[in-house]
Amino acid sequence: MALPAPPTMVGCMWYDDLTRVAAFGELTQSALYARLPDDWVIGCADIVGSTDLIAQGRYKDVNMVGAAVISAQINAAGGRAFPFVFGGDGAGFAHPAAHRDAAEGALAAVQCWAKEAYGIDTRIALVPIADIRAAGRDVAVARYAPAPGVDYAMVLGGGFAWAEARMKAGEYGIPPAAPGTQPDLTGLSCRWSHMESRAGTIVSVLVEPVGSGPKVIETMRAVVNLVRRLDRGGHPSPPEGPGVGWPPKGARLEAKVPGMSRAKVLLESLLAKVLIAAGVKPGGFDARRYRRMVGENADFRKFDDGLKMTLDVDRDTAEALRRLLDKAEADGVLRYGWFEQDEAMMT
C-alpha cells in the first residue's frame, strides 16, 4: 500500500485532528492515513521467550504484560490520545518528542514490574521516527472508529516492524528502572471468560504484504470483503459480550497489578457478575450494556503493518479464505500465518 503525502498537522495534538473512519473496509485506502510528524518517537516492547511461555500455558501472563505496556502509556499521557497497537506478546505506540521522558519512564517501570511480579523479561526501546525514515521505512496512521467514542490506530509503512527488529537486535534500548519501581496500571483488568466459537472455528490470521502496489491493495480488499459476509463480520464475541465466569481465570495475575489484591479482584468480579445476571443499575451503571459494548468495540481486526484478524468463521468461509491467501502468496503478493482454535480470549 503506497503511503500518502506528509500531513500538514504538527505537534502534540496531531493525532486529535485525524478523521475517524467508521467502515473497516475503507482502511485499505492509503489516502486515509497520515504520516507521523518528524519530531515523534516510536516506543515498542516485546516479551522475551513468549513462544515458550505460551507453550507452558502462560498465555494470560504474556497478554497481561503486553496490555500493561499500553495501560502504563495511557496513564502517563494523562488523557491525551495517541496511536498504539497491541500485539499480544508486545505493543507499540507513538508520542511527540515532548512526551519522550514520560513514555520512557512508563516503559521502564513496566519492564521492572513484569520481571518482579511475573518473572517475565521484556525488551523495550524508543526509536525516533527520523531514524525509521532514514532506513527507508515510515509510519502512517489512520483512526478506525467501530462505535461513537471509541477508536483504534491503524498503521502502515513498515516502521513499527523495523523498530521492533532493531530493538530485538539490541538497539535503541532505554535505561532500566530502579528495583521496586511500579507502573501506573489504573484501569487494567483481566476478568473476561474465553469466547467459544459459534460458527465453527476461531481463526487468527496475519497477512503481511510483499512490496506495495495495486495488487496488494486489491488482495487486501478481497480478504476484507470475504470476511465481511460473516455474521457481524466474524466478530468472535457474542452479541451480548464476553462471559463473566467466577472466579475469573485472570484473578491471580490481576492481583499483582499495583493497587490490587486477590480479595479485591474476586469481590469486584463477583459484584459485576451479580449485576449482569440481575440487570439492576446501581447509580445508573448498566453492567449488561458495559459488557455488550466491550464486545462490540473489541479490535478483533486491524491494520498493523499488515492485516491481523481473529475471526469466528464457518468451515466454508475458512476454506475460501485459505484459498484466496494461498493464491496471493503463490503470486508473491503477500505472506500469511494461520492458526485455528476453539475459543478466543478477550484481553
Structural notes for this entry:
Strand 7 and strand 8 form a beta hairpin. It contains ten helices and 14 strands. The strands form four sheets. Strands 1, 2, 7 and 8 form a four-stranded mixed beta sheet that branches. Strands 4-5-3-6 form a four-stranded antiparallel beta sheet, sandwiched between helices. The longest helix is centred in the N-terminal third of the chain and has 19 residues, at 100-118. The two termini are 29 Å apart. It has helices at residues 50-55, 59-76, 100-118, 129-134, 159-168, 214-228, 251-254, 262-278, 287-296, 315-330, and strands spanning 20-21, 34-35, 40-47, 84-86, 90-96, 122-128, 140-147, 150-156, 195-196, 201-209, 301-303, 307-313, 334-341, 343-344. By secondary structure, the chain is α+β, with helices and mostly antiparallel strands.
First-residue to last-residue Cα separation: 29 Å
Low-confidence stretches: 5-10
Question: What is the typical, i.e. mean, pLDDT?
Answer: 90
Count of DSSP strands? 14
Helix content: 25-40%
Shape descriptor? globular
Estimate the strand proportion. Answer: 15-25%
Number of continuous helical runs: 10
Strand/helix succession: EEEHHEEHEHEEHEEHHHHEEHEE
Which class of secondary structure composition applies to the elements?
Answer: alpha+beta
Major beta sheet, specifics?
A: 4 strands, mixed
From the alpha-carbon coordinates, what is the Rg to the nearest angstrom? 20 Å
Keywords:
347 residues; four-stranded mixed beta sheet; four-stranded antiparallel beta sheet; 22% strand
